[in-house]
Design a protein that fits this description.
Blueprint lengths: L1 E6 L4 H8 L4 E6 L4 H7 L5 E4 L6 H4 L7 E4 L9 H6 L3 E3 L6 H17 L1 H9 L6 H4 L9 E5 L3 H12 L3 E5 L5 H6 L3 E2 L3 H7 L2 E4 L13 H5 L6 E4 L8 H9 L5 E4 L19 E3 L8 H19 L12
Parallel strand pairs: 1-2, 1-3, 3-4, 4-5, 6-7, 6-9, 7-8, 9-10, 10-11, 11-12
Helix pairs in contact: 1-13, 5-8
């Protein structure tokens, strides 16, 4: 009998997969404090993980642990060095969230481009006739979008951009040009040149030593004045202080952020008061459909792992 620890609640349909599977028993862990995780995790053969952090001070107590199944695709909240050294496998929900995140990017692009928040407020405040002269808004037709990273989300995003007849450039050193062309995009090699010409930039990269502060003040300075930057990937890829300064100086037009360097976001973060930023609480995957898919895929990955049926694209190469 394999013991599974579910760290933070997942969708009931995911729980039901465990209920209806032989050779598994589970326990839901709501208290994610370090002391409690050190206390309860050592008895489990496998665990699911959402946003709680698992560093070596916790994992070193988990002598039975064989696998961690992430409720998502990012894994910067896990000590991957420890996992590799101790042969603990890491699984991700490789196919569950791409549609919801791509749609969230389009929501942010459209909201910022069309001035939706400001227009709504004008009508409610009785300023109906002032709207025409108050805002600068944009069409998406023939605008150039730069997609940074061309994995599952990038591929879903390009389909939606094509529907708006946008010109799509893609930067991803790990994806062949023929694949990008197949989806209707152009592969770019010179990132600085791509930054200079983009009307929109959407980030879909992992956070690592190469992407940390990838977009900083120096990069923001070379961009178009009307550029809009969207980040639904990981906080820290954009330098938040530099972004705030650039927006206040009208160096760029706007930004949409679903992720932050520190989460929950610090209430003293100046971006929270910046009216040129559209914010959401790391919620791009919070649709009912995506939450259901992620819960089921998270659990199915564990079941498949212990039954030696796990698919390669679900396993992170550490």
């Amino acid at each position: 009998m394999y013991k599974i620890g579910i760290i933070e609640k997942i969708h009931d349909k995911g729980i039901n997969l465990l209920k209806n599977s032989k050779n598994f028993e589970y326990e839901i862990i709501e208290n994610t404090s370090k002391d409690n995780l050190i206390k309860v995790l050592p008895k489990f053969d496998g665990i699911t993980l959402r946003v709680a952090k698992l560093d070596d001070s916790i994992l070193s107590h988990c002598k039975k642990l064989k696998v961690i199944s992430r409720h998502g695709v990012g894994y910067d909240n896990v000590d991957t060095k420890f996992l590799k050294e101790n042969n603990i496998k890491l699984l991700i929900t490789a196919t569950a969230n791409a549609v919801s995140v791509a749609e969230h990017v389009m929501y942010m692009i459209l909201t910022l481009s069309k001035g939706i928040v400001s227009y709504d407020k004008m009508v409610r405040d009785g300023e109906f006739r002032k709207a025409a002269n108050q805002l600068t808004t944009f069409e998406l037709l023939n605008k150039e979008i730069l997609i940074l990273g061309f994995g599952r989300i990038g591929k879903n995003l390009i389909k939606r951009c094509n529907g708006f007849e946008m010109n799509v450039n893609v930067y991803d050193p790990f994806v062949d040009e023929s694949v990008i062309k197949k989806f209707g995009g152009n592969k770019v090699q010179n990132l600085e040149k791509a930054f200079k010409s983009a009307d929109y930039i959407s980030i879909h990269m992992p956070l690592n030593s190469q992407t940390k502060n990838l977009i900083n003040y120096k990069k923001l300075e070379i961009m178009k004045k009307n550029v809009i930057i969207i980040n639904t990937a990981r906080g820290g890829i954009i330098n938040e202080n530099d972004l705030d300064i650039a927006l206040n100086k009208n160096i760029i037009f706007g930004a949409g952020l679903d992720v932050f360097e520190k989460e929950p976001v610090n209430l003293n973060n100046p971006l929270l008061k910046n009216k040129k930023v559209l914010l959401s609480p790391h919620s791009a995957t919070f649709t009912e459909e995506c939450t259901e898919r992620m819960g089921m895929e998270t659990v199915q990955n564990l079941i498949d792992f212990f039954n030696n049926k796990i698919k390669n694209n679900m396993i992170v190469k550490l």
